[in-house]
Amino acid sequence: MKLKKYTRLIAASMAIALVAAACGSSSDTATDGGDGGGGDAIQTASASSCEAGQIDGDLAIFNWTEYMDPELIVAFEEEFGVSVTEDNYDSNEAMQPIINAGGSGFDFIVPSDYMVGIMIDAGNLQPLNRDAIPNLQNLAPEFASGLPYDPDAEFSAPYQWGTTGLGVDLTVTGPDVPQTWGLIFDPELAAEFNLEGQFSTLLNDPRETLGAALKFLGYSLNTTSEAELQEAEELIASTLDRVAAFESDQYDELLVTGEAAVTHGYSGNFLFQFLDAENPEDFTYFVPEEGGTRWIDNMAIPFDAPNPCTAHTFINFLLDAERGAQLTNWNLYASPNEAATPFIDQEVLDDPIVYPTDTSLLEEIEDTGDFEINFSDAFTSARG
Amino acid sequence: MTTAQTTELSPKNLSDANERNKRRQGFLMAFPAYAYLLIFFAFPLGIVVVYSFATRNRFGGTDLSDWNFDSYIRLNDEVLRNILFRSFTLALLTTVICLLVAYPFSYFLATRTPTIRNVLLVFVMIPFWSNFLVRNYAWRVLLGSDGPVSRLTELLGLGETRILFTPTAIVLGLVYGFLPFMILPLYASLERLDWSVLEAARDLGATGFQTLRKVTIPLSMPGVIAGSILVFIPSFGAFVTPEILGGGREVLLGSFIVSQFLEARNWPVGAATSTVLMAVMLASALLYFRKGGRTL
Which of A245, B91, B184, B204 could cross-link with B235 by S-S, CB 3.0 to 4.6 Å? Predict the structure, then answer.
């Protein structure tokens, strides 16, 4: 998720294209009574009767940018004699309407946690045929089932995961920096660590940024309490004079170029950026002790995938121990694949940015239904 | 008109038929343009309007069977009024600055020899050769605390200046981005200026300033109006520049609309905001054109 710096402009133009796409599907809307979710009616799709290793055509992947090792695709093409095409998206919200409209032609998609929940409710995904994916047994128990958005692991299998936290420039704060959201939200702590003035950035994302404030206040980031949300909104409003920008694309560059000293962002991006920096040891990333977001991206098959059996085979292929390790070694995000652990580079396994030592602090963002509007309104109001 | 009537060969009917023929020809010639406008402008616009009356369902999809004005009612919120006011002010400021910068430049341009004129015009267009997004990111570097502007003020002993992520940066970026849209129409109308009228004004004893105020500016009004509209409208709904140079600290209309579509997944409210925005712009453009209509 949230892989590279693609600005919302692209997302915005996608949205515009989607309005046009939605018109193309106006005939569906007449039958299912609503576009973008089909009301409460769940499009019934049953698991395909695929067998392990079965191929029913070429594979069309719809994935985040720079998230799939191209060599894995080549290996799959060679092993199964199919051709694979990959298209990319930069936000779940840009991807979902395309699948929802039907006829997208994609066989394999990678929605994040809360979006899996939305897509299940909207009938966008087909159940996985577990018999066709024997490698599901490679998943670590915590990822194999019981995930809040797909409790019975019926529609999705975890792909990679990561966290949202703070990147810090230690040359500004000094080496002994407390791992807390207070660096941003607590004015006294900010003053103590030279973070006054506009030296922090927060993600330009209502759920992540309000989530950080909610965590600092000791609440769940999936709260549906208006009072708690109000408190979080006021907290963000009170930090405005220390926040340089609400930034979702370049927070890692802003940090290493010295434009900001503490920035809110996603683990993998910071790691990439630190490896590129002149003095990597000057920077650190952590999930604050109050807790933060863990996001899990998942492999899933759209309800109308043209070649579902190839997609099942591809999921099985990626869940293989060595392939799973190859993926993590390539994209530097943590793997849910337990069997892959022995094949993952030791330095990646030892890196607390990739594998945080304490995962009990982490919480996944869940869809709050109609309360999403309150989140986005609060985020708008907080900025005046 | 029935066939019986058209067979009467009166001169009036002949000219009528001619007229109709011409109109038909005109329609055929304009057909591709009409079709283009219908498919790529009117139709999508219609969808936006239709969506603005629909309802967000709890998955963030749009329920097209539940029609109401809720999205429009929600727009009458203080937060949104602030956003509108802020966007309007910034757009107006951008337009005025563009006009003040572009007018003398266009005048200069119009009074050069054709060769120099063409070279300068190419310079005005060159920025369009690279992507708007990339140019905005370039401004980030220029305006950052480590950028040349800041370096210069440091050198002058004024200390580090940080323009990036302020409203100043937004206006600067907008002026930069939309200046050519002001220069080109202004240049077009100044270039067509009948210089003998100016000479006459001077001969009749008008000072340079009087000539400018009473002759040049009124004659170039069509350019001023066209340029102002071309700058004001995109500035009002601008998204890229406020987001990249303003750092999203101030929510402007463009960002609000995008956040409704992508974050709140509330397409009806996003569509309603767009519809209101378009209505306001259409109304003000019509008003502007009507006022300036005689000179256009």
Answer: B91
